[in-house]
């Protein structure tokens, strides 16, 4: 097709087929939201390894990030170099990684495998997203994935001297909502759909937090002041909600440096996960940088769990 425009390489062998995203689908709101959730999940999972990803398309092709995820979540140790520079080493490494992941993710239903070494290494966005979605569903089922996300794609088939292309809709996440997995982060929905309600929701969450901090004679006035940024309040709030005391030596009561503040946030997020809450949808640095939206997401998770207490 002469007019076919693609943002991805499609080096196909004869009679080979592949699925590639249409360029305008990158601007789809649901696609962007799902991409953001997946990247946040990877960054939260690998925060202790100081791994930071920014692109589904560009940051997974060499196997480095997937190796870190597999070794941490799948509890396996691969005898492969962490840094693979040549294409040959990268594909060999990806082959070992995907063999392990396929066994863990899709052993009961091989039809769910929608990725290959070639598609991941060639930066096929849809293949990479299918893999990350399956990893989230398997390793972190409580993570909030948007539901009902489908994107426009091309189904390509290489003939002897031709390239056939059929326009299709590719489903990334199903329409149904699992009882254990909400479709959207409610705070994102409020900011996007009803921004006029943000102050009301913020006050509701502050009232919830302050009601539980009253016994310590503490009070949070708003979510964009320095008193919230060090997250001493958050650590204390977690203790009040779950009925435990956090040893003073494990966090900084009066953090001065950015590193100390980030340490406090990481501790708070780890305590939340240990307490059975969904994996944090925000990065520690977002709280330290007094991002009100990020703080509201954290408080909403706690509110949703403890609102009846």
Brief synopsis:
By secondary structure, the protein is mostly helical. The protein has 11 helices and 3 strands. Its main location: cytoplasm.
Helix and strand pattern: EHHHHHEEHHHHHH
Number of helices: 11
Radius of gyration: 22 Å
Fraction of residues in H or I helices: 40-55%
Q: What gross morphology would you assign?
A: elongated
CATH superfamily descriptor of the largest domain = Calponin-like domain
Strand fraction equals 5-15%
The main sheet orders its strands as 1-2-3
InterPro entries: CH_dom, CH_dom_sf, Parvin
Domain Calponin-homology (CH): 32-140, 199-307
Protein name: Calponin-homology (CH) domain-containing protein
GO molecular function: actin binding
Question: Would you kindly provide a written description of the structure presented here, covering whatever features stand out?
Answer:
By secondary structure, the protein is mainly α. The protein folds into two domains: 16-171, Orthogonal Bundle (Actin-binding Protein, T-fimbrin, domain 1); 186-307, Actin-binding Protein, T-fimbrin, domain 1. 45% of the residues lie in helices and 7% in strands. The protein has a three-stranded antiparallel beta sheet with strand order 1-2-3. α6 packs across α11 (292-306) and α7 (198-213) crosses α11 (292-306). GO terms for molecular function: actin binding. This is Calponin-homology (CH) domain-containing protein. Residues 32-140, 199-307 form the Calponin-homology (CH) domain.
């Amino acid at each position: 097709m002469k007019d076919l425009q693609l943002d991805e390489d499609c080096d196909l062998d004869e009679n080979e087929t592949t699925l590639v995203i249409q360029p305008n689908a990158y601007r789809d709101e649901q696609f962007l939201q799902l991409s953001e959730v997946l990247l946040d999940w990877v960054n939260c999972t690998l925060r202790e390894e100081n791994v930071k990803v920014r692109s589904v398309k560009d940051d997974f092709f060499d196997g480095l990030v997937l190796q870190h995820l597999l070794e941490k979540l799948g509890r396996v140790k691969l005898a492969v170099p962490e840094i693979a520079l040549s294409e040959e080493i990268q594909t060999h490494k990806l082959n070992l990684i995907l063999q392990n992941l396929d066994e863990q993710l899709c052993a009961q239903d091989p039809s769910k495998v929608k990725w290959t070494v070639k598609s991941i290494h060639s930066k096929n966005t849809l293949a990479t997203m299918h893999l990350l979605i399956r990893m989230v569903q398997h390793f972190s089922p409580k993570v909030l994935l948007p539901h009902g996300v489908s994107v426009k794609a091309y189904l390509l088939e290489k003939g002897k001297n031709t390239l056939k292309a059929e326009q299709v809709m590719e489903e990334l996440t199903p329409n149904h909502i699992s009882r254990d997995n909400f479709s959207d982060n409610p705070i994102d929905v409020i900011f996007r759909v009803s921004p006029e309600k943000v102050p009301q929701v913020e006050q509701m969450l502050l009232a919830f937090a302050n009601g539980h901090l009253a016994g310590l004679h503490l009070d949070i006035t708003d979510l964009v002041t320095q008193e919230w940024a060090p997250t001493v309040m958050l650590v204390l709030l977690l203790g009040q909600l779950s009925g435990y005391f956090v040893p003073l030596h494990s966090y900084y009561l009066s953090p001065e440096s950015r590193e100390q503040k980030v340490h406090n946030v990481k501790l708070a997020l780890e305590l939340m996960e240990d307490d059975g809450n969904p994996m944090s949808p925000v990065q520690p640095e977002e709280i330290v940088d007094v991002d009100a939206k990020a703080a509201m997401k954290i408080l909403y998770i706690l509110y949703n769990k403890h609102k009846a207490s």
